[in-house]
Amino acid sequence: MQRAFRARRIIPLAGEGPSRTARELFSPPRVHDDAVIVTRGGFVEAVEPYGHFRRRAATPLTDMGEVTLVPGLVNAHGHLELAHLTGSTVQGAGFVPWVRSLLPLATHPLTQDALDAAVRQLADCGTAHVGDVGNRATPQVAAALAAADIGATLFCECFGYTLPDPPVSDALWPDSARALPPDVFMRQAALAGHALFSTHPVTLAVAKRWCSRNGRPFSIHLAEHPDEVEFLTTGKGALADMLAVRVLPEGFEAPGVPPVRYAAELGLLDEQTVAVHCTQCTADDAALLAASGTWACLCPRSNAVIGEGAPPVRQLIEAGVGLCCGTDSLASNHDLDLWNEVRTLRDMAALPAAAPLRMATVNGAAALGLAHLGTLEPGRRAAFALLPDDLSRDIPATA
Ligand SMILES: [Zn+2]
C-alpha cells in the first residue's frame, strides 16, 4: 500500500555515496522544506514537495509536524549481550581495569528485561540497523531486534589463542551462532575478531577470509587503547600481565609492530572491514586505513567512559579514512542513543553537523554493506529517523 509522511524538513541524502573526504563529509546536504516521503510496501517511492503530493488525495498521509526526517540510523558497533551490565564496570581508569571488572560479570546471563530496554533505546532514536557483536546470546539478541523491526549484522566474535581444530572457518563459530535459525544465519551472520591482543592471528585471518568469501563485513576492535599499542609493540605492560594469566600461550612473542600495521600484515584491512575505536591511530596508521579502504567505527563516548583517550577525528578525515560510528555497549556507555555519538563527534572535532550525520547513516550503511539503507531515495527501505532540533539547527536550508 502507498503511504506518505509529511515533515517540515526532509534531508534524504539522496544520491550520496559514502563520504570519505572532508569535502564530501562537510558539504551542506540538500534540505527539502515542507516535503513528503512517499512509500510503498516499506520502501521509498519518492521524496517530493508537499504541494506536488497534495494532488494524490487517495494516499493516506501521516503529518509528522515540525520535525526534520533523515535516513534511519546505522549503529555500526554494539554488544547487546552486555545490556544488563549498565553501570557495573570500573570507569575512567583505562581499558585494563575496565575489562578486569567486566570479566566476572560477563558470564551473568543476559536478562530479557535488560535486552528489551536496550532495544527500545535503539528504536527510540530511529536506529534502522545495528552491527552487534557477541558470542553468547546471539539468538536472543537476534529475536529481540527482529521483534523491534531493527535490522542487524550479527557479528559472532572469535576470542582466544586456542586454534580451532581444524583451523578452518566452520570451526570458528561460537555455539550461540550455531543456535541461530538457519535463515537468520544465512542472512545476518558475520565473523568478528575480538582484538589483535586477544585472538590468535590465524583465527583472525581465517575469520576475515570467510567474511570476504561470503560477502560479509568483518569487524575487530583496533588501536583502541594505549595498553594495546604497548603490548603489541613490546609484549609488556598492564595488558601483558593480565593476558599472561589466562589467555596467552606459553612462549608467546609479541609481533613487535603497532596495531594498524599488524592488522595490515595479517590481511585484515580492506573495504569490508570495520575497525572499531582507532583512538591510538597515528598519521601513518590513518594513511594505511585510508589506502586499504578500511572503515573506522568511532565510539567516542565509550572511549571516554573507559578512559582510553579520544579518536583523532580530524586526522582520520584529512587522511581520507571512511568513518562511521557506534555506541558500543551499556557496559561502557550511558545509553544507546546514537544521536549522542553524533553530538560528541561534532563537538570534539568542531565538525558541521552534516558530517557526523553522514557517519551515522550513509557511511554506516556502506561500512556494513547495506545497499537498502543509508539514504532516502526510490528503492531504499523507508526507514527514517527524527533529527533532533539542536542538530537540525546546525544544517542550513538549501539556498
Ligand atoms: Zn566493542
From TrEMBL:
Keywords of the record, alphabetical order, are: Hydrolase
Q: Give an example GO molecular function.
A: hydrolase activity, acting on carbon-nitrogen (but not peptide) bonds
Q: Does the keyword Flavoprotein apply?
A: no
Q: Kindly give the InterPro entries that the UniProt entry links to this protein.
A: Amidohydro-rel, Metal-dep_hydrolase_composite, Metal_Hydrolase, MTA/SAH_deaminase
Q: Where's the Amidohydrolase-related domain?
A: 68-387
Which spans are transmembrane here? none
Q: Does the keyword NADP apply?
A: no
Query: What protein does this entry describe?
Result: Amidohydrolase family protein
What is the protein's species of origin? Nitratidesulfovibrio vulgaris (strain ATCC 29579 / DSM 644 / CCUG 34227 / NCIMB 8303 / VKM B-1760 / Hildenborough) (Desulfovibrio vulgaris)
